[in-house]
Amino acid sequence: MTPQPPAATPVFAAAHVSRNERLSSFFGRIALACGEPFAAAEPGQFVMLRRPETLDPFLSRPYSIHATWFREGRFGGIEILYKVVGPATRRLSLLRPGDEVRLLGPLGRGFRLPPGVRRLFLAAGGVGIAPFRFLVERLAPQGGPPAMDCRLFFGVRTAEELVCAAGIAARGVPVVPTTDDGSAGAHCPVTDPLAAAVEADPPDLLLACGPRAMLACVADLARRRGIPCQVSLEERMACGLGACLGCAVPGRGGPSRYRHACLEGPVFALEDIEL
Ligand SMILES: Cc1cc2nc3c(=O)[nH]c(=O)nc-3n(C[C@H](O)[C@H](O)[C@H](O)COP(=O)(O)OP(=O)(O)OC[C@H]3O[C@@H](n4cnc5c(N)ncnc54)[C@H](O)[C@@H]3O)c2cc1C
Ligand code: FES
Fold this sequence. Notes:
The protein folds into 2 domains: 11-107, Translation factors (Elongation Factor Tu (Ef-tu), domain 3), CATH 2.40.30; 119-232, 3-Layer(aba) Sandwich (Rossmann fold), CATH 3.40.50.80. Helix 4 (191-200) packs parallel to helix 5 (212-225). The protein has helices spanning 87-94, 130-139, 165-170, 191-200, 212-225, and strands at 11-22, 27-33, 46-50, 61-64, 67-71, 74-83, 100-107, 119-125, 149-156, 175-179, 205-209, 229-232, 248-250, 258-260, 267-269. It is globular and about 50 Å long. It is built from 5 helices and 15 strands. The structure holds flavin-adenine dinucleotide (FAD) and FE2/S2 (inorganic) cluster. The site of flavin-adenine dinucleotide (FAD) has 22 residues, from strand 4, strand 6 and helix 1.
C-alpha cells in the first residue's frame, strides 16, 4: 500500500449558505460559511452534507470540496459544485443564503503530488471536475499559472456542462474539452485526446475523477504506459467514517483485500485498488 499522509481531523459542524448559484440546467455551486477545521482541507477530500430539519433523504451525501473561500483575508468556508441527480442534490439547489446545513469533514485522503512532478495531466468526467478547481488553485496559490506543465482533459455530455473550464483555463491550465453530443470541443470520449497526448509525451502523473467507465479507461491507459496514476472514486457512501462498510472497494496488496473509499480514499493510487 502506498504510504499516506495524515489527514485533517474531521468535525461535525453547522454551516450556513453564503451563496448558491445556478451554472447550467443541472449544475450549481454553493458557498458555505463554516469554521476553521475546514481550512485544513486538501484537494480531493470531501464532506458529508445534510439538511438539519429533514429526514428526506435520510442519509447525508458526499461532495468533493470544490474550493475554499476567504473574506477580508480570513477563512470564510468551502464551495461545493453539485449536479442535480436526485432528492439531496435537488434540495441543495433550492437552498438560499442564510439556510443551515450540517457538515461532516474534511474527510478522506486527497490527491498526493510527489516531489519532482513536472508534467501533470488531469482527467475529469462531468461533476468529476469538482475537486480539480481546488487542486489547480493549490498548485498556484498566488493566482499565476502552476509551476509545472499541467493540463486538463474535461469530458461532459453537452457544452453547457463545461462548468469551471473557463476559470481553470484562466489560471494558466490548458483545457481540452470533449462532449458526447459534439456541441463543444471534440465529439468523442475524453479518454481519446487524453490517450493521444499520453502517447505523444507522457506525463509524470495522471489524476482522474469521473464515472467508473471513464476511470477504467484511464486506468488501462496508465497501466499500459506505466504512468503513475491516482483516481478519485465516487462510491455510494452512507456514513463517511468507516462504520457502515457501504463504500468498500476491492483492493490490491496490504493486509485486507477491501478498502474503504471514505477512509482510505476517495483518491487511490492505481496500484492499491482493482479497477
Ligand atoms: C467522494 C465523493 C465525492 C462526490 N462529490 C460530488 C460533488 O462534488 N458533486 C456532486 O454533485 N456529486 C458528488 N458526488 C456524488 C453524490 O454524492 C451523489 O450523486 C449523491 O448520491 C446525490 O444524491 P441525490 O439524493 O441527489 O441522488 P441519489 O438519489 O442518491 O442518486 C440519484 C441517481 O444517481 C445514482 N448515483 C448516486 N450516487 C452514485 C454514485 N456514487 N455512483 C453511481 N451512481 C450514483 C443513483 O443510483 C441514482 O440513480 C460525490 C460522491 C463521492 C463518493
Ligand atoms: S461510507 Fe460508511 S464505511 Fe465508508
